[in-house]
Amino acid sequence: MLINGELKYESQKLGMNYFRVALVLFGAQLLMGLIAAIQFLYPGFLFEIFDFSVSRMVHINALVVWMLYAMIGSVYYMIPDETGEETVGIGLGKLAFWILTAAVAVVVLVYIFIQVGPGNESTIWFINEGREYLEAPRWADIGIVAVVLVFYYNVFATYMKGRRTGIMTVMVANLFALAGLYLTGMFFTDNISVDQYWWWWVIHLWVEATWEVFVGTLAAYALVKIIGAKREIVEMWLWIEVLMLFGSGILGLGHHYFWIGTPEYWWEIGALFSSLEPVPLVAMFVHVLYDWGKEQGHCESKGSAHALNNSPAMAWVTANAFGNFLGAGIWGFFHTLPQVNIYTHGTQFTAAHGHLAFFGAYATILIAMMYIGVQGSYGIKKMTMTFKTKMALTLIIFGVLGMGVALTIAGYEQVLVERADLGGGWDAYFIAQDLPWYIQAQGWRLAMGVVTFVGFIYLAWDLLTIGAVESAQEESEGAAAAAAA
Amino acid sequence: MESAIYMPQIAADQFLGIFIVATMVLIFGVGYAASITLSKMGFIAKKWQLFGYAFWILQVYTLYDLGMRIHSSPFTTKVLAVAMLAYLFAPHLYFYLIDEAEKRYETSEDGQ
Amino acid sequence: MSKKSASVWTSIRFWRRSAAWVTGTATVLLIWLTFDTMGQISMGSDADLAKGIKHRIPAATVINYHVDYQFDQKRGHEVPVIGEKEKFFGKEWSAKDAAALLHHGKLTSQAKNCMNCHTLLGNGGYYAPDLTKAWLDAKWNDGTMTGITGKNTKEEAMAEFLMHPSQYPTHARMMPDLGITQDEAVALVAFLKHMSAIDTNGFPRNFSQSAKRLEGGTHAH
Ligand code: HEM
Ligand code: HEM
Ligand SMILES: [Fe+2]
Q1: What is the average per-residue pLDDT within A385-395?
Q2: How far is the CA of A33 from the centre of ligand 2 (A)?
Q3: What is the number of structural domains in chain B?
């Protein structure tokens, strides 16, 4: 990941820059998560120095930002492959990258060192907006919009100029919606219900509609690229996924409008459409797995080696197909009916789902894209897993699953004691927080968080070294073959 | 405002049962999708498909049980019934589409 | 080629068009529902409040009234009940002052990042108690917090707590001092009181029973 000499297009080199920053932010995200997890167990840890609100804010902001970086990186990386063209405004694109990165650095430093401000507009403009996930202060919001406009112009203009594949068509249309939605989360209102109504437009319509379609697009690209799947079939599936994802996800938004002051009809709308949300996830799961299995069988019968030209990336794509179904589909469905959600709403159960879904649906496939990037950067024909790849896969997946299970147990205990038995409120909350089931679950979450973090170290190490190691190997093998001939 | 969903009181000692049954619904659901997918892909023998259907039936039963336990309203019952039917057909629809698409697009030239 | 007769089920064009139609329809429905919802969740007026006309989100002047949370037989869950007038920080607030106070309170809640520890309307961090009905919490009504802070009314006790939270701990997990000033604290209390009067379709459930149930202890022991 350190060099990218073999890439022919500037667009792809820019993509690699986005991946590099994404990886750093991913590490920062995990460190902040560990601090927050420690604070649950030892509340005195960094108290009034670096409070839970700060560690959690940086944890989830770094999460969103690294994913957006990796998404932008993936798009810059795939543009030349798909359109056959260099990105049109590449100079502007590079400038935008440095501006965005500088802005992100300033925002993070302000979060960490200034933390909170006085209760007036200046804080909203310059320190933080205090709305979970969308904390970025308004100056940064405006900067982000400007940078995204440059990015979108680049994607759109290159698309218009070059080959217009189905994959790129979905990408261009979906990115428009994705970027536009950010605008609905930028204004201030005194009415907390109106506030949360639009807040969910950004959060839900991102993660359960536009980001999911984005993942579908990446998976389509990856299948064509890694296992040489037939483009027509992949594109047909992509449209089916778009249909099902938007058909269920857009109105599935209703599952966040049960209790925020909005009318009761959202109970029915939210229950119905969000119950259907797992259906496309099953489709994606079946499709990816089938293609992969078939492509392997296909080539073995012809006697050649297997079709995968990048097994680390494929392993993460498979993890994505499964993780998306598990974290978003299953854990999501579990608490999406209003009769259940009234008890689970805002407990650790939500956190369990949040972790499994963000990781399963997004982290996995974005890591796969990074491996594809490394392969291209070093011109490796057939990339295979190293020991570190396997350690990263195993430890990260085991760690996140472990955290998910621990938080599910904690959430269940909260539902039972705090909500069902005691009816909520301050004392009920703390009684539930102090029971052994809850405390032990938090302990396990911290332990599994450490496992995840060790896995991340392997991942970073692997991404940084695998390219050089395997390209050298291929070269020496090539030389040996040539000498033998 | 008349609402189709009614929020019944659920006694605290019923929650454990609700969680266990809900978990079983999910496990059987995964079992169904997994057996159908794996046998269609040829990883396991065709006869495993029968187990898949058995999983589906168990899933329907546990979901029914869950519906009773949360005192679900007629509306929710309908939503769940539709979801279960969709779930029965979904994998078959997917494989039908996979097969048809292959016939149409893979024959023109070889995969590589 | 011989593909003329191929089924529509494998036609890319068919799926592309269907995707566009389904997405379009869902979007139009969502926009339509949004207009309806916006109508229902815009803040009521002071005049309606005086006349007893219910709004899901009442006017800021709801701080001049007693707020309660009671089981509604017809709806099958608890709803906020706006009662008699009562003084808030020793006075009645004009519509203009109340609106300004709520504005300041909402801004402060964001500036101090309350939402990354607490949940508001159930959304936010899970490190501290939900604030949706904090104004109605037994803790402020049964003498606990007025006692600890040495204040006479619950609004004063809340304001004092918010200014110096770590001086009045109730649990090992304490709220940090966020540099909240007196004015900001008063505004925050108004924001919390207003939020407690929002009709949340019965969330948090059984909250009005909490105090009674706490006396009985929990099943889980
Ligand atoms: C990849 C896709 C998904 C991601 C990344 C995701 C992520 C999240 C996150 C982070 C939250 C918590 C928001 C907060 O902080 O308050 C949440 C809430 C929720 N999600 Fe998802 N989700 C996904 C898919 C789904 C699906 C498919 C369903 C339903 C079938 C679902 C159902 C819910 C529900 C009901 C809540 C509200 C929880 C509450 O009331 O506290 N999610 N989701
Ligand atoms: C080292 C591993 C990690 C640890 C120790 C950790 C810890 C935490 C903690 C303590 C919170 C606050 C929850 C609360 O308010 O009670 C949190 C929230 C969150 N984390 Fe993590 N985390 C880790 C990794 C991850 C990963 C890998 C992802 C996703 C890719 C992730 C996504 C989230 C999300 C979406 C939330 C907000 C959840 C919600 O509001 O429902 N975290 N994390
Ligand atoms: Fe959602």
Answers
A1: 97
A2: 6
A3: 1
Overall size of chain C counted in residues: 221
Determine the Cα–Cα distance for residues A28 and A6; give it in Å rounded to an integer: 29
Two tokens, residue A75: 């798009």
Alpha-carbon distance of A283 to A301, in angstroms, equals 27
Helices vs strands, H then E, count in chain C = 8, 4
| Nearest ligand atom owner, CA of A67 | 2
Residue of A130, A288, B22 whose CA lies nearest to C111: A130
3-state secondary structure of A452: helix
DSSP classification of residue C179: -
Looking at residue C150, its pLDDT comes to: 93
pLDDT value of residue B46: 83
Do C89 and A226 touch, CB atoms closer than 8 A?
Answer: no
Task: Report residue C111 as tokens.
Answer: 């500036």
Q: Could you say which DSSP state residue C93 is in? A: P
**Residue B69 falls inside a structural domain:** yes
Cα(A67) to centroid of ligand 1, in Å?
17
pLDDT score recorded for residue B3 = 58
- Is there a contact between A275 and B83 if contact means CB atoms under 8 Å apart? yes
Domain spans in chain A, listed from the N-terminal domain onward? 1-163, 174-307, 310-469
Provide the ipTM. Answer: 0.95
CA distance A53 to C127: 9
What is the residue whose two structure tokens read 């609700």? B18
Residue A96 CA, distance from chain mean position:
22
Instruction: Name the residue range of residue B40's domain.
Output: 15-103
Question: Across the interface, do A339 and B1 touch by the CB < 8 Å criterion?
Answer: no
Q: Select the residue from B7, B70, B73 to test the C interface by mutation, using most C Cβ atoms within 10 A.
A: B7
Please check whether residue C182 is in contact with residue C174, taking contact to mean a CB–CB distance below 8 angstroms. no
Query: Pairing mode, if any, of strands C123-124 and C119-120?
Result: antiparallel
All residue ranges of chain C with pLDDT < 50 are 1-4, 220-221
Taking contacts as CB-CB distances below 8 angstroms, the residues of chain B near C202 are: 7
Regarding the beta carbon of A246 and ligand 2, being less than 6 Å apart is answered no
- Ligand 2 probe mutation, A54, A135, A204, A355, most atoms within 8 A of CB: A355
Environment class of residue A261 by beta-carbon count within 10 Å: exposed (0-12), middle (13-18) or buried (19+)?
buried
Q: Closest partner residue to C202 among B7, B13, B105, by Cβ?
A: B7
Question: Got the DSSP string for chain B?
Answer: ---S-------GGGHHHHHHHHHHHHHHHHHHHHHHHHHHHTSS-TTHHHHHHHHHHHHHHHHHHHHHHTT--HHHHHHHHHHHHHHHHHHHHHHHHHHHHHHHHHSSS---
Compute how many other C-beta atoms are within 10 angstroms of the C-beta atom of residue C185: 22
Specify the residue for token string 């994959």: A167
Helices C12-41 and A231-252, packing angle to 10 deg: 10
Determine whether A179 is exposed, middle or buried from the number of CB atoms within 10 Å of its CB (0-12, 13-18, 19+).
Answer: middle
> What sign for the dihedral angle of Cα A192, A194, A196, A198?
negative
Where does the pLDDT of residue A485 fall: very low under 50, low under 70, confident under 90, or very high at 90 and above?
confident
Chain B residue closest to A229 (CA)? B111
Assess if residue B30 is contained within a domain: yes
Cα separation, A135 vs A124, whole angstroms = 9
Please give the DSSP secondary-structure letter assigned to residue A458: H
pTM: 0.94
Is A36 in contact with A52 (CB distance < 8 Å)? yes
